[in-house]
Amino acid sequence: MYLIFSQIAPTLPLSHSDRHWQDDLLTLGRVTHREQQAQQVIQDYNKRMTDTKEKFKALQGKQLLLLSISGLDSIEVFTKQTFAGNLLEELGFELVLPKLPVRYGAIPISLELLPQSLPAYQAKQVYFVDYHFWSRITGPIATELVIEQLQQLLDL
Predict the structure, then answer these.
(1) Where do the structural domains in the chain lie, given as residue ranges?
(2) Handedness of CA 29, 92, 123, 100 (dihedral sign)
């Protein structure tokens, strides 16, 4: 695609990783002569993460299963290769992962793999979140939205 687009107009290839938005932001900052602003956004993000980790300190090591369900035939377990999975691990949670092959940062599973009576459900520790905030949007603003929602869900 890069070759096709670069024949039409100047084209800047960015990473394909949800986890490396900082690199892309610095690249865009250099190209637009706003590198200082890009660095400030990253510094603010790092401070926010340090503060948030402190708030979540009591939950460090707590196991968490991050499911994406878009129908009975499409259930996936998100890994740390996804934006949300990486963010949750960075905050100190331990992702629970089945020993199955990973595809595009997620592990496809079937409904039969989920136990019929999940202890987390019985303990009222199952939370539903917006799929787009948690998986489609990345970067500092998305991080802020996910952290705010996580704090509300966990009463922190």
Answers:
(1) 60-153
(2) positive
